[in-house]
Design goal:
By secondary structure, the chain is mainly alpha-helical. The chain has one domain. Helices cover 65% and strands 0% of the residues. The chain contains four helices and no strands. The N and C termini lie far apart (46 Å).
Length: 63
């Protein structure tokens, strides 16, 4: 197996907290309603749901 095949075959799994934050960040960067807000809770419905998922991952599933 070549080096390129090995590196593509073995990928590290993304941590749930980092994935949730990345999804929220990518949304907030593109969303018109979420761009200018100071708090994630003041964004659109989708942005708030993504932020809630991040907070849930951050606390380990506890509300």
């Amino acid at each position: 197996m070549t080096g390129a095949k090995v590196s593509t075959a073995v990928r590290q799994a993304e941590l749930p907290i980092l994935r949730a934050y990345r999804l929220w960040f990518e949304h907030a960067r593109r969303c018109v309603d979420c761009k200018g807000v100071r708090k994630a809770q003041d964004g659109c419905g989708s942005g708030r749901e993504l932020w809630d998922a991040y907070r849930l991952a951050y606390t380990g599933g506890e509300r």
